Protein 1
Amino acid sequence: MKLVVCGIGSAYKYAMELIDDSCEIIAFINSYELTRGGGGQFNNKPLINISKLKDIEFDYILIASGNFESVKEELLRAGINESIICGYIFERENNPKIQEALKLPNEFVKRYLNLDLTQKIMPKWKAKNFQAVTMWHENTQEGFDFIRIQTLYLLSQQILSKNVNGAIAECGVFKGEFARIINRLFKDRQFYLFDTFEGFSPSDIKCEFGSTDFFNKGFKNTNANAVLESMPHKENCIIKQGYFPGTFDLDDEKFAFVSLDMDLYKPMKDALEIFYPRLSQGGYIMAHDYHNKVFSGTKEAIDEFSKEHNVTIIPIADLFGSVIIAK
Ligand SMILES: C[S@@+](CC[C@H](N)C(=O)[O-])C[C@H]1O[C@@H](n2cnc3c(N)ncnc32)[C@H](O)[C@@H]1O
């Protein structure tokens, strides 16, 4: 397959790790100088501008640039047939489970990708779907918390590259959206999923809000078996269904990464007390909702814990303000 590659920066370098051996790059286009640029060479191949495409023979154009949308538009304007344009968005995969986990509507994926072609050219792409996203504006997609997911990805890289030992846990799983990503990143680790799978406990709500009238219907619409079935590496997952901390029976276990997302003061405080002493050196707790104005009990629990145990917290600018606790 003869390819013209649009992009000569970091996205291009990343694409080269994923490209099929049968691809031959015959020219490059600098994605930031599509029409004006060109001339000279890049990696021993001619660097051209879009108007020269008609003079060369090639099969496909691969967009390897964070500037994806405008490059694609410019190629279409230059008369290039859409069916030979392919590319990828980091962290995206033609996998309904991932799309669901990231809440990506189908149209969203289609808008950017010629999926079959992209996978033909970059067969290793599927395995690498959690790499850096360059399209920051996508962070505003409803329900898609780029910074939270990307922070998780970076933490997992630290843990895996340093061989920090221990299991993985999430307290507060609900339908398993974040859990699926955790499970995918830590695919070989034992993963414990703690949740009532029936929503909050009335006594915790009462303790927090002074009445059970609040949030008593929230987070009930889930099912432990369905969540387990939806995990990409379910063979390593163990569901701990019921009220936390009553379901914690892992006194001898060490943990490399724990996600805490139970929203309320009491279970969050209990979870910090339980997991922090069992966290391996080099491990992380990622606690959600530190800046959630509705569930302010989380912040209270974390601040109290941090003060009582002299533990430093690192705030993250994701949608509800997670914090990281490192050991
Ligand atoms: C915000 S949801 C979790 C969302 C999930 N982490 C995600 O990002 O997709 C909070 C969950 O905490 C669970 N939860 C709250 N208090 C709990 C407790 N004491 N024991 C077990 N689960 C609890 C609720 O049932 C609910 O499913």
Note: The chain is about 30% helix and 20% strand.
Protein 2
Amino acid sequence: MIGSFYGSRIGIDMGTANTLVHIDGQGVAVKEPSLVTVRAGTGEIEAAGRAAEAGAGRTPRKLRTVRPIRHGMISDLTLCEGMLNRFLRRTDTLGIFRRFRVAIAVPGELTEVERLAIVESVRNVGASEVLLVDQVLAAARGAGLPIDEPRGRMVVNIGAGITDIAVISMANTVQTRTIAVAGDDMDTAVAAYVRGKYQVLVGERTAERIKIQVGSALPVAEPLTVIVKGRCLVNGIPREVALCEREIREALSVPVQHIIMGIREVLEQAPPELSADLVETGILLTGGSALLRNLDRRITAEFGLPASVAQDPLSSVIAGLAHQLKRLRSRDWRRFGHPS
Ligand SMILES: Nc1ncnc2c1ncn2[C@@H]1O[C@H](COP(=O)(O)OP(=O)(O)OP(=O)(O)O)[C@@H](O)[C@H]1O
Ligand SMILES: [Mg+2]
């Protein structure tokens, strides 16, 4: 096989909520929650991904469910490597005689220390070369935008931990901003609202379910309600509450407003020629939180620019990495990679 000396080429989108792995020539081989279950005494990883998710919030005392990535950044290097290792083992990539190169998506604004942490964790699982790819560019490419053109376009990737906002032109970001507000903050806001108004505690996953089922960034025509169970703070007993769309829209208003403010800042700072292009090219929303009901319409209403959601926003980044892996030549890896 041509190129086999360098082994497989792998794309990784290691997000706060979900990790996706694409193997060139094979397709998406891993699509799992970024979660591990850890044994409390030894720190040993018992399960990763979906297997860890099944027990989240329900683990016995000797086990803990941990998210090794917070706000788009590695918060626990050892657990992150352990998780990646388990995911890659399932793909038959790892092995003493196996070589592989990794292109990994990263947020637009990163410190050198954060970049190094990502490179180190990927090298520690066995990659011979690592290429860091700006995730908004990957998302734009994956969503099918012709980003090589000399035309201004705006992409907003709203994940679980971060929102990456960029104006791009000629396959580069021209103006960017990364804010640490995204889907997780929406869940926290929903849980805080239910606690404040009904004195009922709901877990993270229930809060996420409420957001997905009845959350909206603008009023909806049809009445939406959801019934959830939580623990009553007053008497400690499980209780049911019914929540409607208007309440959850109110709960979500603060994180949604933060995202709008971030977009406004980037729009204000973009070079005038490129901003003029946006009237036609508009704003593309990617990342799982782009699926929040009516978020595209809300952004259009705020800025008077056409906004749309990518066809499969949870997979835009990995699709872009897959596309890029095919185009990379050996010298690109040497130029951008971090060889030891
Ligand atoms: N229908 C939906 N409505 C609202 N939010 C949704 C919907 N579906 C998924 N989400 C949210 O999308 C987020 C996950 O998206 P994604 O997988 O793009 O994030 P990530 O890449 O793991 O995180 P990040 O890029 O911030 O590190 C979660 O917060 C989830 O609740
Ligand atoms: Mg992401």
Note: Residues 4-138+316-336 form a domain with the Nucleotidyltransferase; domain 5 fold (CATH 3.30.420.40).
